Amino acid sequence: MNSHYSVAVIGGGQAGLSMSRLLRQRGVDHVVFERDRVGHEWRTRRWDSFCLVTPNWQCNLPGYAYQGDDPDGFMVGADVVDFLEKYAASFDPPLLEGVEVTRLRRTRAGVFALDTSAGRTTADQVVIATGPYHAPAVPRIAERLPAELVQVHSSQYRNSGQLPPGAVLVVGTGQSGCQIAEDLHLDGRQVHLAVGSAPRAARRYRGRDTLAWLDEMGHYARGIDEFGDADEVRLRANHYMTGRDGGRDIDLRAFARDGMRLYGHLRAISATRLDFAGDLAQSLDNADAVAEGIKDAIDRYIDSAGIVAPAEARYVPVWRPDSSPSVLDLAASGISAVVWATGFHRDHRWIEVPIFDGRGYPTHERGVTGCPGLYFLGLPWQWTWGSGRFAGVAQDAAYLSSRILDARRQRFTDEVSWLAGTPTETYPQVEWWAAA
């Protein structure tokens, strides 16, 4: 590890590697710190049947796109790891695997000091590409469950056989919760599912993948500045669907029709008694309304563009709750395990730079923070829907790489001006440049 770099990139996932590819292309000396190894999150925090929800054709990183023979398919976890490893091998980034950055601060000299598990270094500019999913979020209410009950977070779930025999309670119906509930259901387990407010979308409509229609409609090119409620947009749950077995809808009503037990959101726990809110019907109706609203937009686009596309009947609910169950007794229901599909917390405690709002979210404009030389890359809705995905991170990386180059040019100009009349010993910021 060098004592100083022009740019330090923290995180060696798709975001960090994308930035490295562009910096190398533009001749900028830099380093990429990866706490574990390339593809670690995809290796260790996904269940066995996991696959992407976005189609393979959306996997398009700088200088490297999906090269398989199934662009409309959905890569499984091992394929995603292979994709990232081959991407890294394609340009040989200056990658330090197994090196964790434990502290980041800005010095009075205007450079960034990084404490790492391999020692200390400095950098003129820093790109934080660690994503938003750092620490599993398990609500404190989980502490009230009986000690003998097995509890796992969605990031720890692998397959049904990992859990003891018996029924399973899944809490949360974002993409992970719905897909894990389906995985358990298909394996013959009795599943109890606490349903949240996440919306859903149809996998296909009128002859194409819904995401293909939305891409053609320009939906994924919309910047966050086009929304009046940008903060709320960034916090919205993703629409649930799946790429499993070639891709299909996730219909919680169909699960219930086939024996899964659905409840409203979990409200309280007392001994072995769980209390749920009475909002199940409303949550299901709202999720369906979002899915049908997307279809409405696709219909309007097809009509306005004069596209010939097959007609398709609209969704008809296959099950409705007669009443929303409000109580579940763990012992009587035979529940032996709980899967908490309740998301993640951000953990930026190692960043000692005042750039966060009251909720701990980094304040930025397209990834550019208020601290000169400090950037974020790979955040959900950093600029577009695809910012936190394979689909849009390349665009964000290109934008930030241009800003990094602009800052380097400005720094060079300022330093030359200072050097013209100021000895370097009184201007320590430029000693590295003078030595070069």
From TrEMBL:
It holds the Pfam family Pyr_redox_3. SUPFAM superfamilies: FAD/NAD(P)-binding domain (SSF51905). InterPro entries: Auxin_biosynth/cation_transpt, CHP04046_FMN-dependent, FAD/NAD-bd_sf. This is FAD-dependent oxidoreductase. It comes from Paractinoplanes durhamensis. It comes from the Bacteria. Keywords: Oxidoreductase. NCBIfam families: MSMEG_0569_nitr.
